[in-house]
Specification:
With about 775 residues, the protein is α/β, with parallel strands linked by helices. It is built from 26 helices and 22 strands. Helix 18 links the parallel strand 18 and strand 19.
Length: about 775
């Protein structure tokens, strides 16, 4: 059964569209289970009815026509209860409903299972037989397993079908939404511009062809160029290869024959697709066919087909380059956006970013946050090759891409966008006023930086220091470890830019979702693996060079603070401190007049929360990294779109942990700050002040909003709000409590816009 299941999933994955996928599904399931009928009903997001979308055994003319409400028939029972229904005499069930014209009355045995993806009912999968018998446990288990395996395939196919369809042509009347990971907050509206990696078949967009004959001729010209390349390679290797090995090149040439791949691609072009799109679609289809084959030799041919396709595509792209035109309000879309791609777009035209791959710690996301560009990463279900030129709304707060939104939805987002723009302008007057509560309690607001582009904006927004300088960014942007002198120059620039304000430099924090291209870390569970201080303690040569560079950079400035990431126990901290003292002693011996700076610990794992006093006793300050702390406390990978909805920084457990850290630092007489995204949340700022946090460090774009909220509350009001929040049982309740308190204080507009379900079309 497992082998059968794998073959069915492979076949469905190879389908061109949802209709084909469903047809393959019902045919294969009926065949494997030996049943006379297999049917798929999908739930319509518009009518909420269960529509027959594919069947094997019933009248095919009823596909797309016959439907049931969730309160009708046995299919409705399965959908309503979201559990299997197994009957030997279906017609005797009280919910049995006769659909005229189907011929269902001939079939007595019924087994239906729900198709569910990420808690959302997609439809119902049914098998039926004329014999009156109850399906056995193995058959029921197989169908349940089949449904679970296919749910994601169907969800993706439906999402793709909402845009593409069989010929990958966009339907301008359809709307859809796609979930990703918030990369940089904000709302962006504009036109999608697709960036295509070189010779990547899977990233080629679908575009109409204006001159069919010219495109066909151009394609065959490129095909001939590749044939000549292959012939040249064959001739050059003739003396080194055996005849059997040389035969492989003949196979390649036969594949490239005008009457083989060539004629299929020509047909696609004549249907209206441009040459690159036609090539990609035909080659990918053949690759999937080969990959699904049982024979190992034939399966390997998928690699050959893919290689040939890339070679032809490279010629097509080289000879058919075009200057990209960036419209006003460009939404840059790509499979994996990079910092260099962002730099190519004129800043005044770049409105938003959408990347299919990548996390909130990707280079592109870090740069986007520094630039204040709303960004969504990890939008894995987005059929990105089909969205070029489409109208998009990027909801960087919730990580949702709205494709071709309905006019009323677009107008609502437009209003929110204008509101946010006016709000930002109105906050500029707060730049030079102190960050203090109504009763005079000062709360310094610092910034998180990593790029020089952050500096001007941070100073312009009135930052009072740097709570987190991400030293890994210079490492990420190079092809090797930077030398001690290279690091010294980079660190000196940061220290000088903010002098005399303090700059907190976090030692190298790689691992997790931050891997250096020249120092890859491959792990099954990277967030619980070799990362942060664990890496640098295992490589003291890296750690010592970095600390020496920091200390040298601070000579004559004395505004450096060093912070250690991912500390999980006291011996780890003591070992790191010994290395810092050693680096300092070495420099003193060399005659460098570097002072030993304040040293602190990042509290970002649960064990550090419970040992906060012991850690505080050994260092000069504590700083909470709320992003990772929330992730570890809730066991939620915030870069995984499947569970990102469970990541709540105002979860009661997170708030209690934050309070405990603040109390521990206070007990040892040490200052405590916070440098995660929670610090830049205007609603959370009041709770953090009440807990006793001495400093909040955030993205520069959040500074003035947070300052506005701080200046609207007294410490007493903040403490009352915290007391009530700590009694709440869910993050939703805490958020609502904070939202109401902000509204009552007249600063409700500072909070993230409440983009509720009423703004969103049904999930595709």
């Amino acid at each position: 059964m497992l082998d059968a299941l794998r073959r069915i999933v492979q076949a469905v994955n190879s389908a061109d569209d949802l209709e084909s996928a469903l047809d393959i599904m019902v045919q294969r399931i009926a065949q494997v289970m030996g049943v006379e009928v297999c049917t798929v009903y999908l739930r319509s997001p518009d009518t909420k009815r269960l529509v027959m979308m594919a069947n094997q055994g019933f009248n095919p003319e009823l596909v797309g026509v016959a439907s049931l409400g969730e309160d009708e028939g046995l299919v409705g029972v399965v959908a309503r209860r979201e559990e299997p229904l197994n009957l030997d005499k279906a017609e005797e069930h009280p919910s049995y409903f006769y659909l005229e014209g189907i011929g269902e009355e001939l079939y007595h045995s019924f087994l239906g299972v729900p198709i569910i993806h990420q808690r959302r009912l997609l439809g119902v999968l049914v098998v039926q037989q004329k014999d009156s018998r109850r399906f056995d446990e193995d058959e029921e288990a197989f169908l349940v397993t089949m449904s679970a395996q296919l749910a994601g395939v169907i969800a993706h196919a439906k999402a793709t079908g909402a845009i593409g369809g069989k010929n990958r042509r966009r339907d301008p009347s359809r709307s859809a939404e796609f979930k990703g990971i918030p990369g940089a907050p904000g709302i962006a509206m504009g036109i999608a511009v697709l960036v295509i990696p070189e010779a990547d078949l899977y990233s080629v967009p679908s575009r109409p062809c204006d001159d069919v004959e010219g495109e066909v001729a151009f394609f065959f010209q490129c095909l001939q160029a590749v044939r000549e390349d292959i012939t040249d390679i064959k001739n050059r290797l003739q003396d080194r290869l055996a005849k059997e090995e040389q035969a492989l090149f003949d196979v390649y040439l036969s594949m490239l024959d005008d009457r083989a791949l060539g004629i299929e691609i020509e047909d696609k072009i004549r249907e209206g697709e441009w040459a690159q799109g036609a090539l990609a679609q035909v080659v990918i289809s053949h690759v999937r066919t080969f990959e699904s084959m049982e024979d190992a030799y034939l399966k390997e041919r998928a690699t050959d087909v893919k290689d040939l396709g890339r070679r032809v595509l490279a010629y097509l792209q080289t000879a058919n380059t075009r200057d990209i035109e960036y419209p006003d309000r460009t939404i840059l879309v790509g499979e994996e956006l990079t910092a260099s791609l962002l730099a190519e777009v004129p800043r005044e035209k770049l409105a938003g970013l959408v990347s299919v791959r990548g996390s909130s710690n990707s280079h592109a996301a870090i740069l986007a946050r520094a630039m204040g560009v709303p960004t969504i990463m990890g939008a894995v279900d987005l059929p990105f090759t089909q969205v070029e030129g489409a109208k998009l709304v990027v909801d960087g707060y919730n990580g949702i891409v709205h494709y071709n939104p309905a006019p009323e939805l677009y107008a609502r987002f437009e209003a929110i966008y204008e509101e946010q723009q006016q709000l930002t302008k109105g906050l500029e007057a707060l730049r030079d006023v102190p960050s203090e509560t109504l009763d005079g309690h000062r709360v310094p607001l610092w910034v998180n930086t990593g790029l020089m582009v952050d500096v001007a904006k941070s100073i312009d927004h009135g930052a009072e220091g740097v709570g987190l300088y991400r030293t890994e960014i210079p490492f990420l942007l190079r092809e090797r470890f930077p030398s001690e002198e290279e690091q010294r120059v980079i660190y000196r620039e940061q220290l000088q830019a903010f002098s005399p304000l303090p700059v907190t430099m976090r030692t190298l924090d790689i691992g997790g979702d931050k891997s250096l291209p020249y120092f890859p870390i491959e792990e099954e569970n990277p967030f619980l693996g070799w990362r942060g201080i664990r890496v640098t303690l295992d490589h003291p040569e890296i750690f010592l060079v970095q600390v020496r560079a920091m200390l040298k950079a601070s000579v004559g400035m004395d505004n450096l603070r060093i912070m250690l990431p991912m500390i999980s126990n006291v011996p780890e901290l003591e070992e790191a401190l010994e290395l810092i003292y050693r680096a300092h002693d070495e420099l003193v011996d060399e005659g460098v007049e570097a002072k030993l700076p304040p040293i602190g610990v990042m509290v970002e794992v649960p064990s550090a929360v419970y040992q906060a006093r012991e850690l505080a006793r050994r260092v000069d300050f504590l700083s909470v990294g709320s992003n990772d702390l929330t992730q570890y406390l809730l066991a939620v990978d915030r870069n995984n779109s499947r569970v990102a909805d469970l990541y709540h920084s105002m979860h009661p457990a997170v708030l209690r942990a934050l309070r405990d850290v603040a109390l521990a630092a206070d007990a040892e007489g040490k200052p405590v700050g916070i440098c995660g995204e929670l610090a830049g949340d205007p609603g959370a700022a009041i709770l953090l002040i009440a807990m006793g946090y001495d400093m909040l460090s955030m993205n520069a774009n959040s500074l003035l909003k947070v300052k506005s909220v701080i200046r609207s509350h007294s410490v007493e009001a903040a403490e009352n709000l915290l007391e009530r929040a700590l009694k709440m049982e869910s993050a939703v309740e805490v958020r609502e409590l904070v939202r109401n308190a902000m509204a009552a204080a007249g600063v409700g507009k500072m909070l993230q816009p409440n983009l509720g379900e009423e703004l969103r079309p049904p999930r595709q």
